[in-house]
Amino acid sequence: MELCSFLTLDSFIKDPLTHDFMRKALLMSSLVAAVCGFLSSYLTLKGWALMGDAVSHSVMPGVVVAYALGLPFSLGAFIFGVGSVALIGFIKQKSRVKEDTVIGLVFTGFFALGIVLVSKIKSNIDLHSILFGSPLGISLSDVKQTIFISLLVVILLSIFRKDLMLYCFDPRHAKTVGINVFFLHYLLLTCLSLAAVVGLQSVGIILVVAMLITPGATAYLLTDKFDNMTVISVLSAIISSLIGIYVSFWFDLETGGSIVLAQTFIFLFAFLFAPRYGIFKLKKLFDGYK
Amino acid sequence: METINYQNFRIEAENICVDYNGKVALYDANLRLKPGQICGLVGMNGAGKTTFFNALTGFVNISKGKIRINGESVRSAQKDQTIAYVPQNEGIDSQFPISVWDVVMMGRYGSMNIFRCPRESDVQAVKDAIERVDLTDHLSTPIGNLSGGQRKRTFLARAIAQRASILLLDEPFSGVDIRTEKLISELFIQFKNEGKTILLSTHDMIHVREFCDLVLLINKTVVAYGETSEVFTPENITTTFGGISPDSLFGPES
Hints:
- The complex is a heterodimer of chains A (290) and B (254).
- Chain A has 290 residues and is mainly α.
- Chain A has helices spanning 2-14, 20-46, 49-69, 73-94, 99-121, 127-132, 140-159, 161-169, 171-176, 181-222, 226-251, 255-273, 279-289.
- Chain B has 254 residues and is of the alpha/beta class.
- Chain B has two domains: 7-82 and 164-182 and 192-254, P-loop containing nucleotide triphosphate hydrolases (Rossmann fold, 3-Layer(aba) Sandwich), CATH 3.40.50.300; 89-163, no CATH class.
- Chain B is 33% helix and 22% strand.
- Chain B is built from nine helices and nine strands.
- In chain B, helix 4 crosses helix 5 (148-162) and helix 5 packs parallel to helix 6.
- The termini of chain B are far apart.
- At the A-B interface, helix 8, helix 9 and helix 11 of A face helix 2 and strand 5 of B.
């Protein structure tokens, strides 16, 4: 009986690995998850969830235009991602409209532009794969680009890890001791745009924001140390990706959705059972007092 | 050790104005402080206290006027780690996953290399600073688990570790326990003897009388400035808190 279940688990894991596209999907999605997970600790601590949502949606027209012009899609995504933030800042400064309204307004505008462009350009762009991701159908050129962007983001975040932490924690102190806060702001934005563009291949534009905030939020519930938070965030992102892809393979589910759902379940688990900050633990403490 | 010329001004702010998108937060403000002076910055909420601090640290740009720190620009003061800012407790995210040690180490970032790798001297400076604020038992405690007073001391330690010659403290006495208050007042005396210059904002009139040589009363601009004994009069305080609109024609000229 035990042997039997062992074999089942064994084949559950190993069978998909016989397919080339599955090996590639697992590898690439793990890489993408690691990058997004790394960035995620900064975004959740900085309170940039809405910003992440805005940027990830705003890259849409950039991706479409880049595809149409035969440019690297990361370039288009980057320009529109950073552009959207600049536009948000500009409108906020020049009008009396509140910031969250401006953010919602700008990113939906960009997103709509992207959708209209897709319908007009009528190239071989697969709207479905942009919206919902296609980790099982990543092409070779996409693989190269993804690896390049991922490494770039990881290197940037690693070099400026401590400065970015300080920037998220206390930008005023950073400025006071002569650290270039303006640079760090745009560095984080750049990394956000780049992570969004690699993330969208895994889970699509609509859900990529989950890759950018859920792992960080999960980790935040589990630790009080920044470095641990980053490690947990990266690990939970990778594990979610693997679970999502396996589950989608065996049960024939949408892959992007499965990955994000796996992340959500891990978050809920932490929310309930985190040693210090979980609901369950608090309740137990409370009962202990009675 | 730097030699301190007590005649030179540490802070010189001349007719500075700050506006946020056309909204005036501070105008025609002047301040001159020498080494070893402690100055209280007193005003209502929204009177421009934080803006004044932000202008001195370079966190906001001034639209008019001139600021000199130790005779140099704000930019070079930043590079030289001249100014330390101690935020009020509400001004920081106490749930940030960071320990006392890491916060105090941030005081050294400005003088480290780009990777912010602590050298032997940085580690020593952080240790000493933490010892001076009596938090040695809490080196690795996350700031979220500290009391308000302990958190305040953590940020004081960061300023000490930075070895700044000017300290800006935003409401140093609000929300702290007696022990912390006593420790802060002892530190003030030490800082004064070390020739540091301190500018602190406070609501508390008693603290002004107790610690401050000088007082700067502001309500979007300077209402009164000078020796505490001369300037900190009921009339001036009433004017400062009396809600005289800075936009009205009756600007506090006198």
